[in-house]
């Protein structure tokens, strides 16, 4: 029976396995191998979860549209709002330095949702109420937050690599797209009632850059958990924590098929609340078919490497004589997750609360007494700038607010994502933004550091690897005998947004089908 082994249990690997399980014949076996002792311990569990339809450069645009539609359809089919916080989202660019002509009043207008607060350049001291801190202005390094004069370039990541706001990414597509929301037009007026109550900002300081038809929000870890649950239910086998160490071929195998060796690394540290399970499978070697082992050799026709920032290491381990390697570097990302009394619900799901909404509950069945995550109000995305980085703030239907956008370039990639060490000074920079833009009546629930893979071109790599590039060692043949190694990585900060589309396309590549999106420009690396 044909077998595909997916290396990496992040959202790209899970999306690929999920699509393969849906599209492949019933006898097609699928394995996922993940070395980290805790699942979703990097970007797939700690990212913002912002999803966009048309914020991408031309090379990525087709994949962006496909993935957005799949996210929306998947949420509609599986009650995604209740299960992983899928919600329509409205996006704003914020000029946090805005000062009205008459700024003499110091009345706290938080209750009206209109107060502005410049972002401090330095981390705040213990005295959060310091007027000097709250009114400090950023220096001359500030950038245009409107994004209207920005350029995505061919990669679509120019805004990120130059420490500008993500709002820049919206300008090239939504600024010229005939179907772009009218609210995105230059000088659009934001009404006072439209300002998120958890944000200290005046309506005049905000510019709408998308309406809820083209952007959305999810809780990425919960989406990954649901994808994994779906995969396991269809017979996908998870090896965790485990790693692929070599390719080999049975000496007496008349078909000469390739096997991949998977070595288990120890016990999983995931708690039962994570709703995942680790699978020990029967050894498939001909010597002892019934023996359980910590080393498993799996017959495979296809290997999909979806290991994020760790893709080059995985690739080099399996193909040490390869003539070329995927050029992937890592981009660190700090974030804090907080609770605001101005963003309900207190009883909804959050990073600290694993309460489950009963299956079958839907938006239509909700009432005013139901958790607010089931109510139809949209989430919000706020993009602004500060000295040297571009803060991003996202409210989630799960009841929390995510703040990030600080991407230091000098963080060392750990051997495993669970080995990441958080720098407290970087967190303090984010907390300065939190208190400037969300006030002091917030509770910080979580501090996180994750790593996103970025390619040399700035575009994702979604490709079938030519056999000649793999060197003179063993390699899987593929279902058609033309090579069975595929790479899916390099999504940068758009991994969650592009995940379902990437998984669909890679599954179609493995099965030899026409792809649902044009990724021809992403196959060159």
From TrEMBL:
One of its GO terms (cellular component) is cytosol. Gene3D superfamilies: FAD/NAD(P)-binding domain. Residues 1-17 form the signal peptide. SUPFAM superfamilies: FAD/NAD(P)-binding domain. One of its GO terms (biological process) is retrograde transport, endosome to Golgi. InterPro entries: FAD-dep_OxRdtase, FAD/NAD-bd_sf. Residues 97-193, 345-370 are annotated as: Disordered. Residues 97-106, 144-154, 161-187 have a biased composition (Polar residues). The keyword Transmembrane does not apply. This is Nucleotide-binding domain-containing protein. The lineage of its organism: Eukaryota, Fungi, Dikarya, Basidiomycota, Agaricomycotina.
């Amino acid at each position: 029976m044909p077998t595909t082994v997916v290396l990496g249990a992040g959202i790209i690997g899970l999306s690929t396995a999920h699509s393969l399980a849906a599209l492949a014949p019933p006898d097609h076996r699928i394995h996922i191998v993940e070395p980290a002792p805790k699942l979703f311990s990097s970007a797939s569990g700690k990212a913002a979860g912002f999803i966009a339809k048309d914020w991408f450069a031309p090379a990525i645009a087709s994949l962006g549209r496909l993935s957005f539609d799949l996210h929306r359809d998947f949420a509609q089919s599986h009650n995604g709002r209740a299960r992983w916080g899928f919600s329509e989202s409205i996006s704003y660019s914020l000029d946090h330095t805005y000062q009205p002509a008459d700024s003499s009043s110091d009345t706290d207008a938080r209750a009206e949702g209109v107060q502005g607060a410049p972002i401090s350049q330095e981390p705040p001291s213990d005295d959060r109420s310091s007027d000097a801190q709250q009114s400090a202005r950023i220096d001359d390094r500030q950038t245009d937050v409107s994004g209207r004069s920005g350029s995505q370039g061919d990669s679509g990541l120019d805004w990120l690599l130059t420490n500008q706001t993500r709002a820049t990414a919206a300008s090239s597509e939504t600024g010229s797209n005939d179907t772009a929301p009218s609210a995105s037009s230059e000088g659009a007026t934001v009404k006072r009632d439209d300002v998120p109550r958890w944000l200290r900002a005046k309506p005049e300081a905000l510019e709408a850059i998308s309406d809820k038809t083209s952007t959305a929000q999810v809780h990425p870890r919960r989406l990954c958990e649901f994808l994994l649950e779906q995969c396991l239910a269809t017979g996908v086998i998870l090896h965790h924590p485990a790693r692929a160490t070599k390719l080999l071929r049975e000496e007496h195998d008349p078909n000469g098929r390739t096997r991949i060796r998977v070595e288990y690394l120890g016990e999983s540290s995931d708690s039962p609340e994570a709703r995942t399970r680790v699978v020990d499978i029967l050894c498939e070697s001909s010597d002892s078919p019934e023996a359980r082992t910590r080393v498993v050799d799996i017959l495979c026709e296809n290997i999909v490497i979806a290991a994020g920032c760790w893709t080059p290491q995985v690739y080099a381990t399996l193909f040490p004589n390869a003539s070329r390697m995927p050029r992937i570097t890592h981009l660190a990302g700090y974030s804090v997750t907080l609770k605001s009394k101005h963003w309900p619900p207190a009883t909804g799901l959050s990073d600290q609360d694993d309460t489950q909404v009963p299956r079958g509950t839907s938006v239509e069945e909700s009432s005013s007494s139901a958790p607010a995550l089931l109510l139809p109000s949209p989430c919000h995305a706020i993009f602004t700038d500060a000295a040297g980085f571009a803060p991003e703030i996202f409210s989630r239907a799960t009841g929390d607010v995510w703040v990030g956008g600080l991407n230091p370039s000098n963080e060392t990639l750990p051997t495993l994502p669970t080995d990441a060490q958080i720098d407290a000074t970087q967190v303090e920079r984010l907390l300065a933004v939190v208190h400037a833009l969300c006030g002091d009546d917030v509770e910080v629930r979580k501090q996180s550091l994750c790593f996103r893979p970025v390619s040399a071109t700035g575009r994702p790599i979604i490709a079938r690897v030519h056999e000649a590039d793999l060197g003179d060692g063993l390699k899987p043949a593929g279902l058609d005998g033309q090579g069975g190694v595929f790479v899916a990585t390099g999504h940068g900060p758009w991994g969650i947004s592009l995940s379902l589309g990437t998984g669909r396309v890679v599954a179609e590549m493995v099965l030899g089908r026409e792809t649902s999106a044009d990724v021809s420009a992403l196959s060159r690396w």
